[in-house]
Amino acid sequence: MKFNPVIEHLKTYEPGKPIELVVREFGIDPKDIVKLASNENPKGCSPKAAKVVADAASLMYRYPDDSMMELKAALCQRFGISEKEIIIGAGSDQIIEFLCHAKLYGGAKILQSEVTFAMYQIYAAACGASVIKAPGLAHDLDAMYKLYKEHEPEIIFICAPNNPTGDCLDLKDIENFIEKIDENTLVVVDGAYQEYASYKDPNKAINPADLINKFSNTIYLGTFSKAYGLGGMRVGYGIASEHIIKSLYKLRPPFNVTTLSLIAAVESLKDSEFVEESIKECFEQMNSYIEFAQKFGIKVIESYTNFITYILDGINDSTFIADALLRQGIIVRNLKGYGLNAIRITIGKENENQRFFNAMQELLKTGK
Amino acid sequence: MKFNPVIEHLKTYEPGKPIELVVREFGIDPKDIVKLASNENPKGCSPKAAKVVADAASLMYRYPDDSMMELKAALCQRFGISEKEIIIGAGSDQIIEFLCHAKLYGGAKILQSEVTFAMYQIYAAACGASVIKAPGLAHDLDAMYKLYKEHEPEIIFICAPNNPTGDCLDLKDIENFIEKIDENTLVVVDGAYQEYASYKDPNKAINPADLINKFSNTIYLGTFSKAYGLGGMRVGYGIASEHIIKSLYKLRPPFNVTTLSLIAAVESLKDSEFVEESIKECFEQMNSYIEFAQKFGIKVIESYTNFITYILDGINDSTFIADALLRQGIIVRNLKGYGLNAIRITIGKENENQRFFNAMQELLKTGK
Hints:
Two copies of one chain form a homodimer.
Chain A: H1 5-8, H2 19-26, E1 34-35, H3 47-55, H4 69-79, E2 86-89, H5 92-103, E3 109-113, H6 119-126, E4 130-134, H7 141-151, E5 155-159, H8 171-179, E6 186-190, H9 194-200, H10 208-214, E7 218-223, E8 236-239, H11 242-249, H12 259-270, H13 272-296, E9 299-300, E10 307-311, H14 318-327, E11 330-331, E12 333-334, E13 342-346, H15 350-366
Parallel strand pairs in A: 1-11, 3-4, 3-5, 5-6, 6-7
Antiparallel strand pairs in A: 2-8, 7-8, 9-10, 10-13, 12-13
Family (chains A, B): Belongs to the class-II pyridoxal-phosphate-dependent aminotransferase family. Histidinol-phosphate aminotransferase subfamily.
Organism (chains A, B): Hydrogenimonas thermophila
Catalytic activity (chains A, B): L-histidinol phosphate + 2-oxoglutarate = 3-(imidazol-4-yl)-2-oxopropyl phosphate + L-glutamate
């Protein structure tokens, strides 16, 4: 059977190995597995949200409220925007999918930084678009501007903070960049880790309402998967001018967020104490990762997220390290697929981090 | 901002009005609302599944097992197929989306019956395809074959049982039809309501493994949204030959089914007693709908699903009836948008059905 030739060459996203797979492959007891691969919140989710969802479990038979009235109202209040300026997706991933389908057709192009969230190029490729990459570990906005002038891409992706490196552009630099971009090019500012960045450094903090009021060609993406601890429930959102949201809405499948996900997100949004605690503890624990790296001469990228990236050049091979850790039940993300000899480690709970340090220390000492 | 011209003319799916909306519009107490509009299971979901999900609520922070190992294994065992012959989606809707993206490009066409599940043409239109419709209330396979020869569509949709009419083709007729279709045309057999049809009449029962072994160009769709009572959790599946599944997989976004949805589906699949009871009670209650229709001279279509369609020609206007019921807190589906003067009513619990009969009787007596 013949299929759209576009899909022939598609690569699939390689997610962090789930605990189930490690259990199966290495026969390790699930309770001995430390998963530091998918930037999940190590504190879990808001206990209040878990309680409300548990109480609502028997509602699973009801289709979700497709207007998402309650969650939208809560997000609009939070961000000071109108209901016409927001769209909710099955993770912010799905918003990326919508906007690729909306903007990319007939020989289209996207522009992104070389090392950034993998799904941009995966969704773009599924639309048959080509991907222009500005070289470098961090977003090089000057290089991106040159490439924008040269290639005239339909979409420009800015990931702030950037995944999988952890660094973050200053808001003023992002704004200076977008100012130079024409009205018909969609600029995506992916703020999946913004809660962490804005806590650590006000220069990195993005106010989505301000951003879209200044730039009518810009969409801000947020998610409940990280600081809010709902990675498993697939809830994210896009905030943009009404004309963009209206077009994306046409591509939204009905019931794209589950009944329990909506309930979980509404409740999690109320529990700001849990989010603040999560972020505070994350940066406290991150200090041990920085100290460990200094002790062993590992280069780290300053992180504004809930993960840290260890560059292993001159130290060891990232595939060797990631695999060796995996055999001990410690799951980290090998960044070899991004062209880096590096591993990305989610900041876990203290005991989980200690497991990582102990195992890593042993590997670095023996060199194998 | 310019968008893909394809999306300019897209219509959005009109789902059954959620209870939240009726509460808001008419100020009716939620407990007084009877929702018979979305073919949800009036018994709810499996209490065992609800229990397991409630106990697992604190796992919402973990990304789903993206291999969906456990659910796939359970479905493979249930259907006697291999893991390479199944793909799991956020509802069977999402499988329809995948296969439209996989097959429809560059002036493509789909073929379907005139009155059938609305999402086929919505997803096809989003891919820029045109929609060929065989006229008639029921699937007219002879007419469909003629249109197939004339238009050479990329995809043919067969909905068995058909939504929103409730009738169902015999398996042998479906097979005789597919036998005449060339290898490169994808035939979709949507079995969203198959659990009901196969209970009522073995001639309607489809065995997905047999179907795909006979026809390598055919995909069978199933769902947990109806008999399994998990409409809110968005879990469906496609069963087809490996070469089809492999192509669809390339279009699957990672983590397309939530952590709690996977748990719910696995557990629901075990609770066959709940499903059987649901179906039995559905057909028991359906008898009252048939009797009521006979009493008032309303034409019904014989239903092999958990809903029934009342044709109101010569009786009243379906928009008037649906709106009048809505104002009393009784939500049914007006089929005017499908070109029918008819309403589709989900078979509810006895007291819910009684509410419908009382209100309907009053409307039919007064004629307004």
